[in-house]
Design brief:
Shape: elongated
Number of strands: 2
Strand content: under 5%
Mean pLDDT: 79
Helix content: 40-55%
CATH class of one domain: Mainly Alpha
Radius of gyration: 28 Å
CATH superfamily of one domain: EF-hand
Family: Belongs to the TPPP family.
Distance between the termini: 92 Å
Largest sheet: 2 strands, antiparallel
CATH topology of one domain: Recoverin, domain 1
Order of helices and strands: HEHHEHHHH
Organism: Otolemur garnettii (Small-eared galago)
GO biological process, one term: microtubule polymerization
Protein name: EF-hand domain-containing protein
CATH architecture of one domain: Orthogonal Bundle
Subcellular location: Cytoplasm
Length: 168
């Protein structure tokens, strides 16, 4: 039976990685877990501490850590976060922070926000008249617009192209 902490570990472990079994967690998701669960507080435990501990407990060539190594990492972080407590008590407190937590992206917040933004950007009914001139009815650009800018000079708006070498 997986503990609450282990369930949280697994939810974060598979985040953004469909091939993950949830048995191991990468540094990015480990950091996110520490952030989302409030283990990182920016004072006693910073994101640098989290990275350092992750690299300390992982196997030399590994990019991920197991739940066993995760427990080691949490013991270490708990000593920073809850200085006055024993490692075991500190670990329990950290696990309490983790209970029932989900990665903050669930709940569709990011997806909804991005979808909404894209809808605004691609909704041609909201375009102002200056944009409309360049679009046909489907919202696609009209080809064959006449380019009237004279780009033959030296730099922006410079008149007199081809006069550089002429002597007066």
């Amino acid at each position: 039976m997986a503990s609450e902490a282990e369930k949280t570990f697994q939810r974060f472990a598979v985040l953004g990685d469909s091939s993950s079994s949830g048995a191991e967690i990468n540094n990015k998701n480990f950091s996110k877990l520490c952030q989302d669960c409030g283990i990182t507080d920016g004072k006693t435990v910073t994101s640098t501490d989290v990275d350092t501990v992750f690299n300390k407990v992982k196997a030399k060539d590994a990019g991920t850590i197991t739940f066993q190594q995760f427990t080691e990492a949490m013991k270490e972080l708990s000593q920073k976060r809850f200085k006055e407590k024993s490692p075991d008590q500190g670990l329990e407190d950290i696990y309490r922070l983790m209970e029932g937590k989900n990665p903050a992206t669930t709940g569709g917040f990011y997806q909804a926000a991005t979808a909404g933004a894209m809808d605004c950007l691609t909704d041609t009914s909201k375009y102002t008249s200056s944009h409309e001139e360049h679009l046909d009815d489907s919202g696609k650009g009209i080809t064959g617009q006449n380019e009237t800018t004279d780009n033959s000079g030296y730099g922006r708006g410079h008149k007199g192209a081809g006069t550089y070498d002429k002597k007066n």
